[in-house]
Amino acid sequence: MHCKLSYCALFLRFFLLRLAQLSINNQAGVVNIMRTLMTPIVTVDLDILENNIQEMGQFAAANGVALRPHIKTHKSSKIAKMQLAHGATGITVATVREAEAMAAAGFDDIFIAYTVVGENKLEMLARLSETVRIGVAADSIYGVKMLSAVLSESDAEMDVMIEIDTGQHRCGVTSGADAVVLARLVEELPGLNFRGIMTHEGHSYGAQSPAEVEQIGRQAAATMRTIAAQLTDAGFPPSVVSMGSTPTAHIVGKEAGVTEIRPGNYVFHDRTQLALGSARLEQCALRVIAHVVSNPEPGRVVLDCGSKTLSSDLGKHGPGVKGYGLIIHKGRVLEEAVIERLSEEHGVVTLSPDSNLAIGDVVEVIPNHACVVANLAEMMAGVRKGRLADWIPVES
Length: 396
Ligand SMILES: Cc1ncc(COP(=O)(O)O)c(C=O)c1O
Description:
This protein has 396 residues and is α/β, with parallel strands linked by helices. It folds into 2 domains: 13-46 and 275-393, Lyase, Ornithine Decarboxylase, Chain A, domain 1; 108-263, Alanine racemase (TIM Barrel, Alpha-Beta Barrel). The chain is built from 13 helices and 18 strands. It has helices at 7-20, 27-36, 46-62, 77-85, 96-104, 119-128, 141-151, 176-188, 210-233, 249-252, 271-276, 307-310, 370-376; strands at 41-45, 66-67, 91-93, 109-115, 133-138, 158-163, 192-198, 240-243, 260-261, 286-297, 300-303, 325-329, 332-333, 338-342, 347-350, 362-367, 379-384, 387-393. Helix 5 (96-104) runs parallel beside helix 6, helix 7 packs parallel to helix 8 (176-188) and helix 8 (176-188) crosses helix 9. The chain binds pyridoxal-5'-phosphate (PLP). The site of pyridoxal-5'-phosphate (PLP) has 12 residues, from loops.
């Protein structure tokens, strides 16, 4: 758990910065704002964010598929509310803590896309399900029995989605027969409703081309159709068939039988999505602003953002990604500047001869994986038309 700022300090900071109304769109603005904000700072361009959210909402509506975005990307009730305003029918979370934070912020239809095990966590879920509609993933007899057991003391109910492994080989049952066993158990045990099936076709992140992403998405959707048919034949028709991550949402959202998509990263996008061909640079909303703090020898500079800001995530799923982030300086992408090494507060950059970064320069970094960067931040600075517009607390 991160240590969060007190709300008092937060509002004081917010108002001071509101007053400052400093531009960060141009280089002078970036330098200006750094007189008030200390680097490294995680920024979110609110116009880009809104466009991303709106586009996915429109896609889902146009294709008759429900949108239940995964909010582990931002852990922010502000952003989740924007997603609901643009057509999301509910939200997805990964942890019980995220569910708790979102329920406290007023969200009343929450799916935990995770096989929750552990008494304390299950008791928390049971408490939440007394006031909020809670869905949860399960892929084992043990898990289903524990869910029912924890509900036995109350009148509360939970929806259960059976998790299917469509090729990522993380969690999930691999056969229709196993899914039928679990669906039957869910229907038999008190407190549980069998709602449907879900998968995360996260192996799409290992694809080497957009065509391969498409092929993985279609194959996963076909597997889900087959298992849905087997469940229906056995007397357990799934009312929800849920899948779709940022690279595959636009593919599986058009596939027959898929009723819901759960993309998360699309609100920010990142360097991994750029490498996969799932996003363009102008769709990348989240950036880390950093100073060049050292230039010990030609061809090497050091940024004041290290693993505590950028994370150590190399974006290993994505093809062709070198280093820990993409550097932009004065609006120019420095393709050949590689953030080779990180220590906690240092990012060591190897430069090509034509990238002339100097001590004192301010750069933007598009991280490899925006979700983990947001997770490490206590607060993100929302910027609009080059001005600081809002603070976005990271709430769990
Ligand atoms: C179970 C599950 N659903 C949905 C998503 C959303 O995927 P993405 O962030 O690629 O959009 C994830 C991401 O990790 C996930 O684990």
